[in-house]
Amino acid sequence: MKPGIHPVSRPVVFRDRAAGATFLTRSTAHTSRIIEWEDGNTYPLIDVETSSASHPFYTGTSRIVDTTGRVERFERRYGRTAPAGR
Q: What are the GO MF terms of this UniProt record (predicted)?
């Protein structure tokens, strides 16, 4: 790697505003806000709207919104897909 062209990766706390969850990970994102973490150290804080703690796909609450019968019409026209593993 060339020196001086890569961003610095450091520990950062991300806070999910929807779920209230916080997690510590590494990031190159910049922020001026800081937070004291459970280990007593202070880390940069980045607020996010959605994370795996609140996103419907990861929480298992996702639904297919089908108000016009598109899924059923597709399945009638083209049939169901082959079972997994074939």
A: structural constituent of ribosome
**Which residues contact residue 45 at a Cβ distance below 8 angstroms, ignoring those fewer than 6 apart?**
12, 13, 15, 31, 33, 34, 35
What residue segments make up the domains of the chain, in order of their start?
10-78
- Cα distance between residue 14 and residue 40, in whole Å: 16
**Which residue type, as a one-letter code, is found at position 55?**
H
- CA-to-CA separations, 44 to 1, 17, 53, 66, 82, in angstroms, rounded: 26, 16, 20, 42, 48
- Rounded CA-CA distance 63/35 in Å is 35
pLDDT at 77: 84
pLDDT tens by residue, 19-51: 888 999 999 999 999 999 999 999 999 998 888
Gap between the Cα atoms of 79 and 21, Å rounded: 42
